């Protein structure tokens, strides 16, 4: 019987803790051996070892792979160091903050012969996976119009949000989704408009919280990605692709398909967080990564996918700043 892949988690914040619990409790093909985080409480995830420095992970010969959930500014260096230590890498988005750093990370993993998977969880959500299957089967036809949106439930602390977050850490999911739903094409140009409509007082500090981005692809398809940091009714993620032969729609922001009709009218269960809406998808992406390590098959979401979404995000940030369309870098 093959042993489970042994993981270390780097960064045990909100998303890291969720990944840690998935590795320790939900995946039979994986085990959480260590957590590396200088913050107290990192040992509450079921790992047998708690480190305060990622370098301790690199030196641990019993660790096969790492899940990087540290702040985005550290991603590239952590990927490069993990690869040099011979560890397979799952990294939360964005994989880097520049294309040069994305290339460094990809090259480091390729040179070391380790897998690199980026955390674009929507590809593993049932609605999105089913839509992609229809696209691959030709049922939708050549994509013409695509749409992807993300609306957070609000309550964010603007003092803890870096300028550019809406493009690099929120809409980057939507940019990957547009690519996922138009797999035969590449993005070539974007036009973005954005503003601070949730927290107007932070506009002058460069914190934009509401944005719409038009993405043109080299097969003629046009995609729209939109995001807002506050939706009063809860977390809302949806997608749509209109093709020559039909249309597929994804998501409605509900935690379940249940509706209740009573004296006060009709109500639905609306998710308040990404972990409620996409809990199964988060687990599925780690399960796919563990399987890729076991079988040697390349990951489902590669470093090149992460780089391509980052290129769109950087172009969108440029366009929002200049007020003009921006080319997507190759």
Counted up, domains total 2
Structural class by helix and strand composition: alpha/beta
Overall morphology: globular
Order of helices and strands: EHEEHEHEHEHEHEEEEEEEHHHE
Largest beta-sheet details:
7 strands, mixed
> For the terminal residues, how far apart are their CA atoms?
44 Å
Q: Indicate the CATH topology of the largest domain.
A: Dihydrodipicolinate Reductase, domain 2
Give a quick summary of the entry.
The protein has 330 residues and is α/β, with parallel strands linked by helices. The protein has helices at 14-26, 54-58, 75-84, 99-112, 126-137, 165-181, 274-277, 279-295, 303-322; strands at residues 5-10, 30-36, 49-51, 65-68, 88-91, 116-118, 143-151, 187-195, 210-217, 222-228, 236-243, 247-250, 254-262, 265-270, 326-327. Helix 3 (75-84) runs parallel beside helix 4, helix 4 (99-112) runs antiparallel to helix 9 (303-322) and helix 6 packs across helix 9 (303-322).
What does this structure look like?
With 330 residues, the chain is an alpha/beta fold. The chain folds into two domains: 110 residues, 3-Layer(aba) Sandwich (Rossmann fold), CATH 3.40.50.720; 176 residues, Dihydrodipicolinate Reductase, domain 2. The chain has nine helices and 15 strands. The strands form three sheets. It has a seven-stranded mixed sheet. Strand 13 and strand 14 form a beta hairpin. Helix 3 packs parallel to helix 4 and helix 4 packs antiparallel against helix 9. The N and C termini lie far apart (44 Å). The model has no long low-confidence stretch (mean pLDDT 94).
């Amino acid at each position: 019987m093959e042993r489970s892949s042994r993981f270390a988690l780097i960064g045990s914040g909100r998303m890291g803790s969720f990944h840690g619990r998935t590795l320790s409790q939900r995946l039979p093909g994986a085990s959480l051996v260590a957590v590396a985080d200088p913050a107290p409480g990192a040992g509450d995830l079921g790992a047998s070892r708690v480190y305060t420095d990622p370098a301790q992970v690199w030196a641990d010969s019993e660790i096969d792979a790492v899940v990087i959930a540290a702040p985005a500014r550290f991603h590239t260096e952590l990927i490069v160091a993990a690869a040099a230590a011979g560890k397979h890498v799952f990294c939360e988005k964005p994989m880097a903050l520049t294309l040069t750093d994305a290339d460094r990370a990809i090259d480091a993993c390729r040179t070391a012969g380790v897998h690199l998977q980026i955390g674009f969880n929507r590809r593993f959500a049932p609605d999105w996976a089913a839509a992609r299957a229809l696209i691959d089967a030709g049922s939708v036809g050549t994509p013409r119009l695509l749409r992807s949106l993300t609306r957070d439930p609000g309550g964010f602390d603007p003092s803890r949000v870096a300028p550019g977050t809406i493009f690099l850490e929120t809409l980057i999911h939507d940019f990957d989704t547009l690519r996922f739903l138009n797999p035969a094409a590449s993005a070539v140009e974007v036009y973005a408009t954005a503003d601070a409509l949730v927290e107007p007082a932070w506009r002058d500090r460069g914190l934009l919280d509401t944005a719409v981005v038009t993405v043109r692809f080299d097969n003629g398809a046009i995609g729209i990605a939109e995001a807002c940091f506050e939706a009063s009714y809860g977390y809302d993620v949806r997608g749509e692709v209109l093709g020559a032969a039909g249309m597929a729609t994804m998501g409605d922001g509900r935690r379940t398909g249940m509706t209740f009709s009573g004296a006060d009218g009709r109500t639905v269960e609306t998710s308040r967080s990404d972990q409620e809406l996409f809990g199964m998808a988060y687990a599925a992406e780690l399960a796919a990564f563990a399987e890729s390590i076991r079988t040697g098959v390349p990951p489902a979401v590669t470093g090149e996918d992460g780089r391509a979404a980052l290129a769109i995000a950087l172009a969108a940030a440029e366009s929002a700043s200049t007020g003009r369309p921006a080319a997507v870098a190759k």
